[in-house]
């Protein structure tokens, strides 16, 4: 399914939601096999905002998603999560926003090197998501930006089957790991120097 087809499908679903709360399983079905890509984008995007506590909370959701991605045989939403529900208005708004998002990425991405962004991508995307979630959870100044960007790029790449973009996401994740490691090392040296002075 192309991002344009997915956008059309999400928009149709948003207009046909039944009254009352909407289960997450219904929203996942609307995405077909792209619900994991959408969750990556939805959970990672707010981590770019300089709002205290957002990264810590959403990193837990990203970690759960990383575990699900590690289970390459599991393409469906776990039943326990599927039974959770959202208000109809919020669910409809989320689907409409995602439809606009997929229409936009359809213009800037294309299927290429699809082996890197197909079902087999879960073998490294799962561990990568877990690692980036851990970095987002850590209280590192501006440490959320690169991990969140890498996960958003990975979500877009997964939805568009764009292997080139997936390589960019992996590169950014390596940069995030290196930058966070350097900041942790500098912080450790600063603390050691301060304790030495004391």
Describe the fold and architecture.
With 198 residues, this protein is mainly alpha-helical. It has one domain (3-197). It has helices spanning 3-15, 24-31, 35-44, 54-70, 79-82, 88-108, 122-137, 145-160, 163-197, and strands at residues 22-23, 85-86. It has a two-stranded antiparallel ribbon. Helix 8 packs antiparallel against helix 9 (163-197). The radius of gyration is 18 Å and the shape is globular. The model has no long low-confidence stretch (mean pLDDT 83). Pfam families: ExoD. InterPro entries: ExoD. The chain crosses the membrane at residues 57-75, 132-158, 164-197. Keywords: Membrane, Transmembrane, Transmembrane helix. It comes from Pelomonas margarita.
Concise account of the structure shown:
The chain is an all-alpha fold and 198 residues long. It has nine helices and two strands. The radius of gyration is 18 Å and the shape is globular.
- Provide mean pLDDT, rounded: 83
Distance between the termini: 62 Å
The tally of structural domains comes to 1
Helix amount: over 70%
Supply the key terms.
ExoD, 2% strand, globular, 71% helix, transmembrane, 2 strands, single chain, Exopolysaccharide biosynthesis protein, mainly alpha
Reconstruct the topology from this structure.
Layout: H1 3-15, E1 22-23, H2 24-31, H3 35-44, H4 54-70, H5 79-82, E2 85-86, H6 88-108, H7 122-137, H8 145-160, H9 163-197
Antiparallel strand pairs: 1-2
